[in-house]
Amino acid sequence: MLHTINKSPFESSTLETCIRFLQPGDPVLFIEDGVYAVQAGNRFAGLLENTMKDNPVYALQPDLAARGITAVTGGVKNIDYESFVELVEEHQVNSWL
Fold first, then answer.
1. How much is the pTM?
2. CB < 8 Å & 24+ apart, contacts of 49-53
3. I need a labelling partner for 24 at 20 to 30 A (CA). Which of 4, 71, 75, 91 fits?
4. Number of domains forming the structure of the chain
5. Which of the 8 DSSP states describes residue 35?
């Protein structure tokens, strides 16, 4: 199952809630304000690094660029819209709103 997170972790507990429900191998995709979670060096970096031991983590590049985020936590894969569509086609989607 693909988990998408669109809320900033600084304003919502969506990230922590999502992680509690992840199954090994489930991809996590940060979109919209959710991309603030993957900014390098923030307080969520350790949580993401731990998550990436069992789950691939992605961030939508256009949303990173729109928010001026140029450095992301190591291991987070930046993807474009085409790759986003491919993930959606491959997985059932759970949107954490």
1. 0.96
2. 49/73, 49/74, 49/75, 51/19, 51/22, 52/76
3. 71
4. 1
5. G
